[in-house]
Amino acid sequence: MDFDLTDEQRLIKETAREFTDKEIVLQSRENARNHHFDIEMIKKVADQGYLGAIVPQEYGGAGLDYFSYGLVVEEIGRGDSAIRTVISVQTSLVCSGIVKFGTEEQKQKYLPKLCSGEWLGCFGLTEPDTGSDAANQKTRAKKTDSGWVLNGAKMWISMANYAKVALIFAQTDPALGHKGIACFLVDTDQPGYTAQTIEHKMGLQASDTGSISLEDVEVSDDEMLGDVGDGFKIAMSNLDSGRYSVAAGCVGICQGCVEESVRYSKEREQFGRPIASFQLVQAMIADMVLKTDASRMLVWRAGWLKDQGRPNTLETSIAKLHATEASLECANLAIQVHGGAGYVDDHPVERYFRDARVTTLYEGTSQIQKLIIGRAMTGINALVPA
Ligand code: CAA
Q1: Is 155 found in the same domain as 66?
Q2: Within 13 Å and on the Cβ side, how many CA atoms surround 341?
Q3: For residue 206, which of 31, 64, 154, 241 is within the disulfide window of CB 3.0 to 4.6 Å?
Q4: Is 2 among the domain residues?
Q5: What is the pLDDT of residues 241-287, one digit of tens each?
Q6: Nearest CA-CA partner of 165 in 215, 106, 207, 216
Q7: Domain of residue 99, residue span
Q8: 1: in domain
Q9: What's the CATH number where 139 sits?
Q10: For residue 367, how far is its CA from the centre of ligand 1 (angstroms)?
Q11: Which ligand 1 atom is at minimum distance from the Cα of 134?
């Protein structure tokens, strides 16, 4: 076992770090203040190859492995979770599914445009009445002679307003349960697709979150990803990738909390000396370092398993659960180290705290991750009545 990064991995991480510091960090506070979804910044992220990091180069991606993708996402997450969310959704929740389940025509049609940032994508699984119970899709797909007609609603969808292509999960036959779900690549310019911004979020002010209404939206047979009945499997598979990405981004938040707290505590003086010299401040920093290192190791393990082509749903859930909870705890501690200064947005720790909060909710709550872990350990599905 080797815990050292290779020269190539180190270069990928350093490049992402420099890019984040130069292009993201300086702008993120203003973007959050102005609730600005920064398309220009997203273009720069795309130019770096980060929107299609794990997509093969022949389809316009960067062709990175999952481990390296995690290194990039950690750095972006340290800079701005709103931008990291764009990467996670576009790369993991949208592109990874097209790579894995798409036909050659679909790969050629969608991936180059998604990787270049010309198009954005969104992941339409969650509905107003369907969150954790993702198999219980209320959106309906009805077969027609020429394709399908979709009707329903989606909720809490990142990039709903900006996406050109929406992965829409819909039930084709309620009697079949999750085996009736299909996934469609919906052109959002299609009549009947409307998106609306969800306002007044606690955090991720600079990311777009919306609801989607689907009224008699027509899609062709060619726009189905996989086959009828593959939809749930596609959603879960994409989430295996997305949860990894969220976890890596949260390692970035943890790391940012450590770095900001060390810097601030060495500058800030009380009782005639830097607060970094007080044992209780050092204890808070030590707690943050512990949570950061443990989270990072879990993310690295999940990434390594993915690159080996081995099952990793359990390890991804463990990484997601630990890193997202750790990011919240670290942000809370970092604010404590900063005192009153941490309660306003002069320092990034205030934004870390607000942005971290959603990570234990989206892409599967902490409770869902625990049930996935519990089921793997006991062999008992707690969601099925005994
Ligand atoms: N990969 C591939 N297939 C999988 C899988 C995986 N990781 N996990 C399960 N499946 C398959 C199973 O093998 C099974 O297939 P068969 O019927 O052929 O045997 C099928 O899917 C059903 O599996 P389960 O019995 O485990 O399904 P379940 O109904 O008990 O649900 C669950 C399991 C884990 C609770 C799941 O519903 C879940 O993850 N819920 C949370 C949903 C979620 O994360 N939503 C977030 C949406 S994204 C978002 O946040 C918006 C955004 O824009 C950021």
Answers
A1: no
A2: 12
A3: 31
A4: no
A5: 999 999 999 999 999 999 999 999 999 999 999 999 999 999 999 99
A6: 106
A7: 7-116
A8: no
A9: 2.40.110.10
A10: 14
A11: 37
